[in-house]
Design goal:
By secondary structure, the protein is of the alpha/beta class. The protein has helices at 14-24, 36-45, 62-72, 87-97, 109-128, 140-153, 171-181, 198-207, 226-234, 251-254, 270-282, 308-313, 319-325, 342-357, 366-374, 380-394, 408-411, 416-420, 425-443, 448-455, 459-469, and strands at residues 6-10, 29-33, 50-54, 77-82, 99-104, 188-191, 216-220, 259-263, 284-285, 294-295, 299-304, 328-331, 473-474, 480-481. It comes from Rhodoplanes elegans.
Length: 483
C-alpha cells in the first residue's frame, strides 16, 4: 500500500521525475512512470491521490492519457505540466480530461508544491463529500461544490492566514482591504518594495474569490523581452517568430476562468502596454501569428515596486492602462515599517528551514530577535529568509539561535542618524567609511588583501584609512592587531 499522500508523475524524462521527487519528498510519496502504459499499471495496483502528467510523451499526449484516466480511475486529481504544446489539442481536451490545473515549464518549486497540495486537498474534500466513485464520472456541479468548500476553509498556505503578522501590524489593514477585493471581480494593483510578499497577497485574493477553483498563473513581466513576453502571455502559432517551433498556449488561456498575476508590470515597454490594454478592454487575446482572437475570462492582479503614478506623469507608463490595472490599489508596507512582524515571520521561516535542512533548531534568543527587529531589512522578507538560512547553517546544535550568528550588518548596523545626516559632511562620510570597512573586515575574517579587493582599494590605501579611522583588524583567533 502507498502512503495517504501519493503522487504519480508521468514523464519520459527521468531527470524531470527525479527533480519533482526531490521537491515533493518531504510531504508526498512520488511514484514515477515513463509512459502511459507504465502509469496505468501503477493506477491498477496503487491508491493514488494526484496525477502529475507531462503533455509531450512518446506514443500519445498527456491529454489523451488523462481522458482515459478520467474514465477508468476518476478519483485522482489530474494536473498537467506543460511548456510548448499544441494549443488546439489542449483546448479541445481540457474538459473531457478533467484537468484541474496547469503547471507551466520551467516550474518553480514553491509553486509546484502549492499546486500539488491544492490537488491533494481537493481529493480529500471529494472523499468527504461522498467521493467520486468508480461508477460515475465527477460532475462539474460536484467539483464546484468541492471548490466552494475549499474556498470557505481558506487552506493554510494559500489564503490570508498564510500572511504572517502581529495583530498591531500595519499590514493587517491591507489584508482587510484585500479581503474586500475578493468579493468583486475587479483588477487589483499591489505596490510595495521587492520581497514584501506581493505574490502571497495576490494568491490569497485568488483563493478567497469566486475563481478559487480555477488556475492561478504567475508571470514576471520584467524578466522577458517583448516578443517572448507576448508569446508567454498570449500564445503563438508555429513559425510566428524565430524559435517558435510549435504552437504554444498562452498563460491568459491557461488561466481562463481564474486569475493571472502580472508581477513587475512597471517594467514593461510602451508597445507591450498597448497590447495588454487591448486584452483588458476586449476580453480577448490573439496569439502571435494567429488569424483570429480568442475570448478569455481572466481576472488580472498586477504588482510593481515602482510608483506608477510617477511613471505615468513621466510618460513611461500609459495612463489608460494604469487606471485599468489599479481599479483596487493595495500597498504592502516594507518590513522596516512593521518591526513587530519580524518575530512571527522569523518563526514561520525557521520552521520551513528546519524542514528543508532536516534540523530542529529551537527558535531565537530574545537578544537575537531584538537585533533583528532593530535592523531595516532593505531586502524585506526575502533578506530575512536568507539570513535565517545562514544562521541555521552556521549553528552547531539545535539550541535557540544566538546573536553571534547574525551577519555583521545586522549585529552592528549603520546608525540611522548618520545616514540621515547627523553631524557635518566630513563626520558622516567617515562614519560610513568606518562601518563599511568594519563589515568587510568581519566578512573577510580580517584578511587585508581580500578586504582591499572587496572595497576596490589598494592594501596601502586600506591600511591608511584604517589607521586614520582608528580601526584594527581581528584575526581568525579573535585577537586584534594593526597589521
Amino acid at each position: 500500500m502507498t502512503s495517504p499522500n501519493t503522487v504519480l508523475v508521468v514523464d519520459d524524462e527521468v531527470r524531470s521525475v527525479e527533480s519533482i521527487r526531490r521537491v515533493l519528498a518531504d510531504e508526498f510519496e512520488v511514484i514515477g512512470a515513463r509512459d502511459a502504459a507504465e502509469a496505468e499499471t501503477v493506477l491498477a495496483g496503487e491508491m493514488v491521490q494526484v496525477i502529475l502528467c507531462d503533455q509531450r510523451m512518446p506514443g500519445e499526449t498527456g491529454v489523451a492519457f488523462l481522458k482515459r484516466v478520467r474514465d477508468q480511475w476518476p478519483d485522482p486529481v489530474r494536473l498537467m505540466i506543460s511548456g510548448y504544446m499544441d494549443s488546439e489539442d489542449i483546448i479541445a481536451g481540457i474538459n473531457e480530461a478533467g484537468i484541474y490545473q496547469f503547471i507551466t515549464k520551467p516550474w518553480q518549486p514553491d509553486r509546484l508544491i502549492e499546486s500539488v497540495r491544492e490537488a491533494a486537498a481537493l481529493f480529500r474534500l471529494q472523499k468527504e463529500a461522498g467521493g467520486v466513485g468508480v461508477e460515475a464520472k465527477p460532475s462539474e456541479a460536484r467539483l464546484r461544490s468541492v471548490v466552494a468548500a475549499r474556498r470557505g476553509a481558506e487552506r493554510a498556505g494559500s489564503g490570508f492566514d498564510a500572511i504572517v503578522h502581529a495583530p498591531e501590524s500595519p499590514i493587517a489593514e491591507v489584508i482587510e482591504l484585500a479581503r474586500r477585493a475578493t468579493e468583486y471581480d475587479i483588477s487589483v494593483l499591489i505596490t510595495g518594495a521587492s520581497g514584501t510578499g506581493k505574490e502571497l497577497l495576490a494568491r490569497a485574493i485568488h483563493h478567497g474569490s469566486g475563481r478559487a477553483g480555477k488556475p492561478f498563473v504567475v508571470e514576471n513581466c520584467g524578466a522577458l523581452p517583448d516578443q517572448l513576453l507576448e508569446s508567454e502571455l498570449f500564445g503563438c502559432k508555429k513559425g510566428a517568430f524565430t524559435g517558435a517551433y510549435q504552437d504554444r498556449i498562452g498563460l491568459f488561456e491557461v488561466a481562463d476562468g481564474g486569475t493571472i498575476f502580472l508581477d513587475e508590470i512597471g517594467e514593461t515597454s510602451p508597445s507591450f502596454q498597448v497590447k495588454l490594454l487591448r486584452v483588458l478592454q476586449e476580453g480577448e487575446i490573439r496569439p502571435l501569428g494567429a488569424q483570429r482572437p480568442r475570448k478569455v475570462d481572466v481576472r488580472v492582479v498586477s504588482a510593481t515596486n515602482r510608483d506608477l503614478e510617477t511613471e505615468v506623469a513621466a510618460g513611461r507608463f500609459r495612463r489608460d492602462l494604469y487606471y485599468r490595472l489599479a481599479a483596487f490599489p493595495l500597498h504592502v508596507p516594507a518590513l522596516a515599517d512593521r518591526p513587530m512582524d519580524i518575530p512571527p515571520i522569523a518563526a514561520r521561516i525557521l520552521r520551513g528551514v528546519n524542514q528543508s535542512f532536516h534540523r530542529a533548531v529551537a527558535g531565537f534568543l530574545p537578544e537575537t530577535l531584538r537585533r533583528m527587529a532593530a535592523y531595516d531589512w532593505p531586502g524585506n522578507v526575502r533578506e530575512l529568509h536568507n539570513e535565517i538560512q545562514r544562521m541555521v547553517a552556521l549553528s552547531d546544535n539545535d539550541l535557540p539561535l544566538g546573536p553571534h550568528l547574525l551577519s555583521r550588518r545586522i549585529q552592528h548596523p549603520v546608525r540611522s542618524d548618520v545616514a540621515a545626516g547627523a553631524g557635518n559632511l566630513k563626520d558622516r562620510i567617515e562614519a560610513l567609511e568606518k562601518a563599511q570597512i568594519q563589515e568587510a573586515l568581519e566578512r573577510c575574517d580580517g584578511n587585508i588583501s581580500r578586504v582591499a579587493g572587496h572595497l576596490g582599494l589598494s592594501r596601502v590605501g586600506l591600511r591608511a584609512k584604517m589607521q586614520r579611522l582608528g580601526l584594527q583588524r581581528r584575526n581568525s583567533h579573535g585577537a586584534r592587531d594593526g597589521h
